[in-house]
Amino acid sequence: QVQLVESGGGLVQAGGSLRLSCGASGLTFKRYALGWFRQAPGKEREIVARISWSGSANNIYYSDSVKGRFTASGDDDKNSLYLEMNGLKPEDTAVYYCTAAADYGLAYIIPHDYDSWGQGTPVTVSS
Description:
Layout: E1 3-7, E2 10-13, E3 18-25, E4 32-39, E5 46-52, E6 59-62, E7 70-75, E8 80-85, E9 94-102, E10 116-117, E11 121-126
Parallel strand pairs: 2-11
Antiparallel strand pairs: 1-3, 3-8, 4-5, 4-9, 5-6, 7-8, 9-10, 9-11
């Protein structure tokens, strides 16, 4: 059974940085697509970033809203996923979730593509 545990959320001022971590167990890291989603109050859950090892090279996807500010990475030795968030904006305020799915070559950018989720870690960016 896949288990995901996020940490690293908190309160930060606009322009600041946070690093989220996600410890994963019960999976073979590079056989899974691993994603970060977020959900703000009253809004739908949306993709932030996705790492996939299918194909000949690592493939990292970022949503347009975070591209250039956030960096996703994975460490298969530690079975951990990370999200480095810089230049945070108040609109980045949300609960951030780590997620995983066995990689069958899908895009893995919508929540429906995933079947394992962490409990979420809240990020609040003050203006």
